[in-house]
Amino acid sequence: MNPHMLAQLLVQLIVIIGVSRLIGRGARWLGQPLVIAEVVAGIALGPSLLGWLAPDAMRWLFPPESMPFLKMLAEVGLVLFMFLIGLELDPKLLKGRGHASVAISHSSIIVPFGLGAAAGALWLYRTLSSPDVPFSSFVLFMGVSMSITAFPVLARILTERGLMQSKLGAIAIACAAVDDVTAWCILAFVVSLVRASDLAHAGLTTVFALLYIGFMLMLVRPFLARLGARVANREGLTQNVVAITLVLLLASAWTTEYIGIHSLFGAFMFGAVIPKEGGLAAALAEKLEDVAVVLLLPVFFAFSGLRTQLGLLATPEAWLTCGAIILLACLGKFGGSAVAARLTGLRWREAGAIGILMNTRGLMELIVLNLGLDLGVISPTLFTMMVIMALVTTFMTTPFLRLMYSPEEQAREQMVQTPEGPLPPSAYTVLLCVSHGQAGPGMAVLSRALAGERNEANLYALHLLSPDRALKARADGALDPSAASGGALAPLLGRAEKLGLPVRTLSFVSSEPARDICRTAQAKRADLVMLGWHKPLFSQTVLGGTVHEVMQEAGGTVAVLVDRGLSQVRRVLVPFVGSRHDRAALGLARRLVKQAGAEVTVLHVTSPEGAGTGRAQVEELFPADEGAAVKLKVVSHASPEEAALEEAKAGYDLVVVGLGAEWGLEDRLFGVQRERIVRDAPASLLLVRHPEGATVLAQTPEQARAQGTPQDATQPLGARS
Amino acid sequence: MHLGATLRLLRVDAGLSLRDLARRIGVSSAYLSRVENGVDAPPTQERLTAIARELDVPPGLLMDVANRVSPYVAGYLEDVPAAGTLMLDIARRKLTGAQLARVRAFLDAEFPLREVRGDEPVPPLAPLLSAERVVVQLSCGDYEDALDVAAGRLASALPGVDAAALAQGLRQREGEAPSQVGNGVSVPYAFVAGAAPVAALVTLARPLKVDAPDGQPLRLVVALVDGHVGRARLMRLAHVARLAGRGLADRLHGAEEPQRVLETLEELEALR
């Protein structure tokens, strides 16, 4: 290249970039992607407009001898660009998108491919091709060129419309990704077919291509993953790493070129195998994008524009043919994907929108067409027609999408995307509500037993400060509320630490402790709210005051621990007559058996008159294989309370008892009766209440077995009894 | 520097990718990324205006977040130096927000604006709150706990909405774009179909170590729930970020009663 040629090239670059940016302004004003502008700029600079208006100017600007340099620059730009496309292709898009996108993407390839191939075979081969082009190559190529979807243009349209996160956008982008990969594989095959002189060579090329793909996937990808992990951040991406990546990219492109499938395939493949986790892919894309997209890609567009000769379509028949090609292309792509989308259950509007999106061919089509022209598979006339087809299909996407899938429609779809989907399952969660320090150690011991050796529970300790106490603490000077809460939580945390139990603490000022306990329990999806017992101010009962309020408001099981020096949970008594509270108590005991290997005695009290069904019920709830740890005692007594009290004196660590009149336990704001079982039982007690309306605990044994302690903690507060 | 984090939050909420916004305002995505990460200096007024236009929020709001004097004001003060002395007078009197509001009311009455400004007023935060949705002096070990407490309060204001689902929604958004806007404030945000906008405010007794853009520990959480996508909610987000820049966390830090928090907030917001 002599200095004059360099000057020539620089002028060309200035003109190309300038004109495409200029037209780009207009395209943005029309709401069109920039690609359209760049392609139009290329065509305008070529023989179609500039060459037609001022042939001398075109000859001066783009003399034939400068074309090889321009072509080389365009090719390098394409290699970089295909690499970027590969980088954008996240394998996560390809898998796990479910049934819909698989079906849609398949039919959005097969239908247009079939139509294109059929048109090529039956009609275009005769009229627009020369006999020296192999029939099979031509037909295959027509099929591929019809079934292209422009992944990058699609992604850009989707982000511009804010559709990327929507269901529609996810399906469309996944389909486009699948389409791209498939189309490039077919294209690689076609190229190898055309380039190889005979079938044996073609077979050899295919074998090499497969070897290459295997090599990239088996060896290069793990290496890149390690490289990616090492340079996970932007600072890690030194110029050395960029150099390594670029060398590998060029080597990959060279390999595919040498094998006989095109260099673009190698660039794409290399981009695709770069790990998308970590920062490597994003950082590389950031570094290369501007050079590739702003500087080099317009050169490619200009180059293909220079080869597009609208003058070749001089006759009405030619324009008719062009129209027919456009119609076929739209029919295949739009029809194929829209019908498939409808069949997978999307509404017509959404299905139509998907069809329109998939019809975007944009620059990927141009790349394919240039390849075809280079290989001599298609004639310049057909090339021009297909370029027009690509332009038209890309151009119509945005307005049609707006028509089909208006912003209102979009808003409606987004409304459906509320966070109220099914919540992911979570571990067994206990909310420990501590108001005074002394209840803490017992709660820690019981939590240990509920969580088991492997800590299979989320434990939260909640301490609510009353507003005046928080103020006082502050007025006292040194103490800030967090220290004050630390005071109340300290005994619990101290014991928990000794037991190796992870507990997360939470404390804030609250004027309505009961409501805040319930709200927090709901937000944490607590399976059990455990309250510490302290002497209520106005009544004798355990179950008054805040405890009563919590029990009334909570959506899940609430338990009150009456701690009499609980230091281990070995022997547990469950008095049982069969109310829903009793069942909840039994459920907790069951968890104690499973997690801590506790020994549970179920005391079933029948009235002297009639034989109860208790044994059957208990056997149902505790299947025989677990029966060893559960002893069932049936006694007949006129007063269940008395019977339970008598049994409780027989050396138990913990009595788990459901609320109920039969045990002398009823929650009310100001109780006057004295709960004898609480007063007189020597063991620690856990008083359990299960709200009405929430899933009744252990309704069926299967359910009980499957879930441990099933209950609907996610039930809204408003649904309680 | 907290502008970058706010920009990212707004950009993600508007559904724009980094590259997309960069392309629209004509800068490189590398530059925009540096701005968002606070590595680069905050954008010039022209760029900030371009960003505001693309995000469809009033440019003045973003300028405030960036603590930049709006070009209007700068130009006016240059043209009419007497206005500068008036500003000095105001500064010398140390007028509070409430007093400034009275001055403004006087201005509105005496010199009504002839043309309607393009900027619609930014919706204030205080009306979205109530004493019931203000939690003071929370101490917890994890940011998620604060979100849960806020979700609990929010859920009581939204009939038929489950606190756990709401907490999940807040966390999900958190995964998409971190809600820390710097100055010790975070703005978690959830979408509930058809809901009227509400907010909950949580002050932390013990500052939490979080991954904040300016490295300041978290002292205040303003959780927002909205039933509509679009301009108003972006403006609300930006508005909270602006309040954060005006020292919201510092002012609310000592408050022990929800009522006191609301008063402070109203005073801060009296001049929007």
Automatic annotation (TrEMBL), chain A:
Ranges in coiled-coil conformation: none
Gene Ontology CC terms, in alphabetical order: membrane
Chief place where the protein resides: membrane
Signal sequence coordinates: none
GO molecular function terms listed in the Swiss-Prot or TrEMBL record: antiporter activity
Keyword entries, A-Z: Ion transport, Membrane, Transmembrane, Transmembrane helix, Transport
Composition-biased stretches (Polar residues): 700-714
Superkingdom to which the source organism belongs: Bacteria
Segments of this protein annotated with the region Disordered: 700-721
SUPFAM superfamilies listed in its UniProt record: Adenine nucleotide alpha hydrolases-like
Keyword Transmembrane helix: yes
Subcellular location as annotated: Membrane
PANTHER family: CATION/H + ANTIPORTER, K(+)_H(+) ANTIPORTER 1
Descriptive protein name: Cation/H(+) antiporter
Organism encoding this protein: Corallococcus carmarthensis
From TrEMBL, chain B:
InterPro entries: Cro/C1-type_HTH, Lambda_DNA-bd_dom_sf, PTrfase/Anion_transptr, PTS_EIIA_type-2_dom, TransReg_Diox_bact_type
Keyword DNA-binding listed: yes
Keywords: DNA-binding
A GO CC term assigned to this protein in UniProt: cytosol
Domain HTH cro/C1-type: 7-62
Superkingdom: Bacteria
One GO molecular-function entry: DNA binding
Pfam families on file: HTH_31 (PF13560), PTS_EIIA_2 (PF00359)
Domain PTS EIIA type-2: start-end pairs: 127-268
Protein name stated in the entry: Helix-turn-helix domain-containing protein
